[in-house]
Amino acid sequence: MDDTTAPAGEATGDLARLAATVERLRRELAGSRRAADDRALVELAKGVLVGRLGCGPAQAAEQLTTLAGRSGLSPVEVAADVVNAAAHDRVSVAARAEPEAAVPLRAAESAALDAGDTQAVARSLLEHALPALGATAVAVWAAGTDGSLTLAGYAGFGPEEARSWRHVPPGVDTMARRSLAGRRTIWHSGDLPSIGRRPADPGGRVTMPMTTGGRVLGVLEICWPDAPGAGSARVERQIEALAELCAHTLTAPPAPPAPGARTGPGTSTGPDEPGAPPGGPDSGLLELIGLADALPDPALVLRARLDARGGLADFEVRHVSRRLHGTPALEAHPFKAGGLLLEAFPQAAGGLFGRVERVHATGEPFRSERMPLALSMTGVADVSLTRHGENVLLVWRDHDEDARLSGLLEHAQRLGRIGGFEENAVTGEVTWTAQLYALYGLPPGEPPVPLERLREHAHPDDGVTVGRFLRTVLHHRRFAAAAFRLRRPDGGARHLRVVAEPVFGPDGRLMATRGAYQDISSQHWTEVALAVTRDQLAHSERESAERNRLALQLQHAIMPPSHGTTRSDGLRIAVRYRPAQKDHLVGGDWYDVVTLPSGRILLSVGDVAGHGMEAATGMVVLRNALRGLAATGAGPAQLMSWLNLVTCHLAGPMTATAVCGVYDPASRVLSWARAGHLPPILLRERDGSELPMIKGPLLGAFTDAAYEEGRVQLHVDDTLLLYTDGLIERRDRNLRHAQDRLLAIATRGAATLDRLLDDLLIRCGSDTDDDTCLIGVQLT
């Protein structure tokens, strides 16, 4: 070996010896810390024996040694058993279920009690308790009142990683944030961000809220290198004990800082706000009482009352604001300092108590307008809940200003010829203003007309417009407006505009439907004149509109939008036709009800594919052809075969679906056939079903198509429904789902056949803006 290589080899050996020395010292230091923790646990057990046996420290130590010798356990294990037997906390629960966890958990507790901050507590958890669970890292998150998270302590992560996660702003979706928002334990295996989390990380994690006295102080996050035993009762009990231990460290008063020392992210400042100056235990309460008394609205100061196990039992009323003294509200709810919220106000269990509990637990403020509140003299109030240290401030404002503004509102309604209404979704009560009675031409003593009966008071030609409005408000529960002609009891008519919107409560339930009617008769002819002027100026649009108008007129000439109920040979027959809302979508739907020369009755509906003039003229050809062919006396299957030939050879290139039935009044038998169409529905004794899906391809598809014929015996009070797919089609649902919904609505029952068809048009919820034909036949 030459002179140049020898020093390098010696240096390498020196570094290895130095590394070995550092490692030996590290192990000795860790062993010393564990020994100190073990001694602290033994000393704690001695104190328990002194209190239980009434002996001195020497006798307690002798008793502990004797117990260890008899049981064959180490003094540390016996000390853990003694402490667990005396304690009634989550550590003792976990130790009884898993004896092997007793020593690690109590050792971690002893180390935490001696720790100066939450950072040291996290290190003690990783050193004593987590190795038995197979975990390799831990993070302790302190929760802020604004929903933010601060990394108060960590172990198993690098300093650089911890610095980048020292603060998580509100609204950032992390693992700990999910557990904080839901106030529950969550086992994670997804890709939510968190400290030390990397893409495609195979490890598993658990986050558990740290709760004490009903308050969620933060979140404990424990990490495994691979998927842990998620949901294991053994693991969860130990984690609950660790979370309770960490929660107590977050609420413990801070140790006096060393001279010149800086407070880090794990430093706790006690139960008041971070960084608050030291004061007496009730200084924050006195300030809050002063604030409550200075508010112009009623207020209560509440503090959590805990049960024997440390859980939330109720809220104690610490102060009643001066605004409530001598008021009817205080007489109705006799609050007094030291009383309990649920005792004085049992109605709070219906929702308010849960809001107060969440604000107390998380610190996140709660505010709601027009919230149902029995504390309020009007039953409805604006409510505000905020947490201040250990206390919750409840403030509410009654809605009595509505009464003060009622005179001004009535004057404005009279000048604008506007009448308002409200329909209570809970009680069904309908409330009208006086001006609305005047618009309808009804005396004030008459019952108000609910929205669902608006069609009965509208002009028949406006039935389609009113139907769309009702479907939007009552079924889709959205804001809607419509203009229509109102038929008054004195025979006159008014052009009205109606607007309505649903009102939902804080929990998303429908509370009411509110709206207004306005008399627009004076503006009607002005609007008509403006519409004519616009048509004259838009020449190109007028040509297209004229073509669509002709198609629509052709449809209306064959099939008026609505018919009254008619009777024929023991049948009560009602029909509805609803054209497309957009003129350029005028389609080829048709219906027909006619008595044949033989005395039998032809019932048919059909739908020509496409829109526009071609579809409308094709509809006329097929409808008239079916009428003529039915006069021969042939059965429905033969009629479908002939109509298919007409579609293929005489009506041009088109396709269509159809269903037709021939009813014999003498035998009460309906013979029917279908061509690619949905089968009719039979309603019998509050039960409904579709007729069988017999064979029958659509018209125009094959020249040699064959059709089957079905027969059904009708009974008295049976109802038969024939319809086109525009009644039920939706873009977000398949056809089978829409058919099932139609059956459910049809079997609810209705007072009359007309009401049944109107309900189907309103509530079936189609959204394709297609033509709709609907025939209802009831055997009497």
Indicate the CATH class of the largest domain: Alpha Beta
Task: List low-pLDDT spans.
Answer: 1-5, 252-281
Q: Radius of gyration from the CA trace?
A: 40 Å
Give the DSSP E fraction (strand runs of 2 or more residues). Answer: 15-25%
The major pleated sheet works out as: 6 strands, antiparallel
Number of strands: 27
- The CATH fourth-level homologous superfamily of the largest domain: PPM-type phosphatase domain
Q: How many domains make up the coordinates?
A: 4
In whole angstroms, the N-to-C terminal distance is 121 Å
- What name is given to the CATH topology of the largest domain? Phosphatase 2c, domain 1
Name given to the CATH architecture of the largest domain = 4-Layer Sandwich
Derived structural class: alpha+beta
Number of contiguous helices: 24
Order of strands across the main sheet: 3-2-1-6-5-4
Oligomer: single chain
The average pLDDT is: 79
The backbone outline, from C-alpha atoms, is: elongated
Task: Please bin the fraction of helical residues.
Answer: 25-40%
List the helices and strands and how they pair.
Elements: H1 6-53, H2 57-71, H3 75-86, H4 90-97, H5 102-114, H6 118-129, E1 137-143, E2 149-155, H7 159-164, E3 167-168, H8 175-182, E4 186-188, E5 205-212, E6 215-223, H9 233-251, H10 283-294, E7 299-306, E8 312-320, H11 328-332, H12 341-344, H13 352-362, E9 366-372, E10 380-388, E11 391-398, H14 401-404, H15 406-416, E12 418-424, E13 430-432, H16 434-440, H17 454-457, H18 463-475, E14 480-487, E15 493-504, E16 510-519, H19 521-537, H20 539-558, E17 566-568, E18 571-578, E19 587-595, E20 601-611, H21 613-630, H22 636-649, E21 656-664, E22 669-675, E23 681-684, E24 687-690, E25 710-713, E26 719-723, H23 735-746, H24 753-763, E27 772-779
Antiparallel strand pairs: 1-2, 1-6, 2-3, 4-5, 5-6, 7-8, 7-11, 9-10, 10-11, 12-13, 12-16, 14-15, 15-16, 17-18, 18-27, 19-20, 20-21, 21-22, 22-25, 23-24, 23-26, 26-27
Helix pairs in contact: 1-2, 1-3, 1-5, 2-3, 3-4, 3-5, 4-5, 4-9, 5-6, 5-9, 6-9, 18-24, 20-21, 21-22
